[in-house]
Task: inverse folding
């Protein structure tokens, strides 16, 4: 059955934490430019670090050392998660770096902000992926060669973009409506660019750990490492590749330590290696070693969220569509801008979580949605986000006005600044020249001094005038500054004449 | 009157039920009600604030007036919700509970 004779199992964990927004009223618009709820961001990060990231990283490090090159895992750390580690839990970043140094762990590239940009704009998408690659290089010292999009969102087009950026493989959901009769347990390739390999998540085996592990009503409870390995072994004759993709918070956070999830994690690799023909591999290795069985066609985007496995968790209602449209309508201006704070806010505001909170599926069924949601209702989430976005827009508006009138004022403003600089330059020159004159013609000093004093007085007077004008009428200012310039040029030639 | 309104607000300190927001929703007007009103218990598609929280109320008014998507959602979902509120449904619900209790009887 197997083309290459090798069987692979891929464990991949998603690590992401959003920057949650504080309650932002419309009274704050235009005054308060800090949008984040530091307390909940820090306390959640600390809690998850203690309960999940640190203990799980330790176990994985032990497993890697114990199995000497046979156990491999894959992580994706969103840029926002890395930023939060740096702010609130630097030791977590250190422990990830330790994992990276073993060489047994692959880190995947994604959009830096864990954003939905792949549904909106290619250029912005590529910019964010490049940023994330840089971040991985800087903080973990790794070069990412495989890709996963936010929440495993994937379509043929997104795959093509990723392929053209040079990535070898991409991870996504083995959604039933895409696969049909096909099995997720093989390697596929992108239908537009077959060089990109597509790894499909086996959602049954993945959700066994993620959602069912601590459910006592489940008929297979308790799930042990041996039982799990035997299920995988059952699949062996008919599969080449098993992809188990999970939220990293599955360990210790969604399933508490008391459920035995950490024991499961520490025994599972041994059981899989002993009882099954599968070997642990990372996505890049899989792309190099295994042969794809066919292309997979995904015309409209899929993801790993909810029962529908589509993007309705983020773009399922009018609110979400309006918010996302508004957000990306600002992209052009943000890209013109060099302000570090604006760039940072732009990134934080893009994270998909803000849109997830606005899902109205929450009204019918949405235990998972409710679990992560800091807002009482989706309407609340929407209002808060839009207020923040409106303030962000005001800030951009100040920098980059968009109506013709605003634009003119902005242009005149820059002209004024340019003129200011010119005035200063020429004032300096005058000073230099006057010094020179003073040196060369000591006999003429009093006369020259007089004229220079006159000139400087003029310049300062006009500068003052200009300041007043700035608030009144920019056009006038330009005229007056032009005047100043001509006067100064006149003054310059005068002093030159004097010099002669 | 409701036809000319953009938003309906019932900031009651205490309200046994409050049928007027339902009339507003019926007439395609988004509603803001206080959590302390009886009607808040049965409505999902309405902004609910504490009666003393004027900041939240002002914020909600601003939101509904400025973000058309929000107002549209309230109008659409509110209308659906209010149409579903019928004595028939409540009566059926009570009858179902009786049936269920009778079916489970243990003597």
Result:
């Amino acid at each position: 059955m197997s083309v290459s004779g090798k069987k692979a199992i891929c464990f991949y964990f998603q690590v992401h934490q959003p920057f949650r927004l504080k309650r932002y009223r419309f009274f704050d618009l235009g005054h308060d430019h800090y949008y984040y709820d530091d307390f909940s961001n820090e306390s959640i990060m600390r809690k998850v670090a203690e309960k999940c990231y640190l203990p799980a990283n330790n176990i994985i490090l032990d497993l890697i050392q114990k199995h000497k090159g046979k156990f491999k895992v894959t992580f994706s750390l969103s840029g926002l998660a890395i930023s939060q580690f740096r702010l609130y839990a630097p030791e977590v970043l250190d422990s990830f770096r330790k994992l990276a140094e073993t060489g047994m762990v692959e880190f995947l590239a994604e959009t830096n902000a864990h954003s939905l940009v792949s549904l909106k704009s290619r250029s912005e998408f590529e910019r964010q992926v490049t940023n994330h690659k840089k971040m991985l290089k800087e903080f973990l010292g790794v070069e990412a060669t495989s890709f996963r999009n936010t929440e495993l969102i994937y379509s043929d087009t997104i795959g093509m973009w990723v392929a053209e950026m040079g990535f070898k493989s991409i991870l996504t959901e083995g959604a039933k409506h895409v696969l049909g009769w096909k099995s997720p347990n093989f390697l596929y390739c992108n239908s537009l660019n077959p060089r990109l390999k597509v790894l499909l998540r086996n959602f049954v085996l993945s959700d066994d750990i993620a959602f069912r592990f601590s459910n006592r009503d489940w008929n297979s409870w308790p799930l042990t490492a041996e039982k799990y390995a035997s299920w995988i072994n059952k699949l062996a004759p008919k599969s080449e590749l098993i992809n188990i993709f999970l939220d990293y918070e599955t360990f210790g956070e969604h399933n508490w330590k008391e459920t035995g999830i950490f024991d499961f994690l520490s025994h599972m690799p041994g059981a899989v290696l002993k009882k099954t023909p599968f070997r642990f591999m990372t996505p890049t290795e899989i792309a190099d070693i295994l042969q794809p069985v066919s292309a997979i066609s995904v015309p409209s985007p899929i993801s790993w969220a909810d029962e529908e496995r589509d993007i309705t968790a983020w773009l399922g209602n009018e609110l979400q569509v309006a918010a996302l449209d508004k957000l990306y309508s600002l992209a052009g201006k943000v890209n013109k801008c060099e302000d570090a704070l604006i760039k940072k806010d732009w990134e934080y505001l893009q994270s998909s979580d803000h849109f997830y909170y606005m899902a109205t599926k929450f009204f019918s069924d949405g235990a998972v949605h409710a679990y992560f949601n800091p807002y009482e209702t989706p309407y609340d989430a929407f209002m808060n986000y839009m207020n923040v976005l409106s303030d962000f827009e005001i800030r951009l508006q100040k920098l980059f006005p968009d109506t013709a009138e605003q634009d003119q004022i902005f242009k005149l403003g820059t002209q004024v600044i340019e003129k200011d600089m010119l005035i200063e330059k020429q004032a300096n020159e005058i000073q230099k020249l006057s010094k020179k004159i003073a040196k060369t013609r000591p006999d003429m000093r009093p006369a020259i001094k007089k004229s220079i004093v006159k000139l400087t007085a003029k310049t300062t007077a006009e500068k003052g005038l200009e300041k007043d004008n700035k608030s009144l009428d920019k056009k006038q200012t330009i005229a007056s500054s032009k005047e100043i310039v001509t006067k100064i040029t006149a003054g310059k030639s005068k002093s030159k004449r004097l010099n002669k | 009157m409701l036809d000319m309104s953009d938003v309906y607000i019932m900031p009651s300190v205490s309200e046994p039920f409050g049928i007027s927001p339902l009339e507003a929703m019926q007439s395609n007007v988004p509603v803001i009600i206080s959590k302390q009103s009886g009607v808040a218990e049965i409505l999902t598609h309405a902004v609910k604030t504490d009666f003393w929280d004027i900041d939240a109320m002002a914020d909600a008014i601003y939101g509904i007036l400025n973000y058309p998507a929000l107002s549209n959602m309230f109008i659409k979902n509110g209308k659906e919700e209010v149409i579903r509120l019928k004595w028939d449904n409540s009566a059926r619900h009570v009858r179902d509970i009786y049936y269920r209790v009778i079916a489970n009887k243990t003597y």
Remarks:
- Residues 2-103 of chain B form a domain with the Rossmann fold fold (CATH 3.40.50.2000).
- The first helix of chain B runs from residue 20 to 26.
- The first strand of chain B starts at residue 8 and ends at 10.
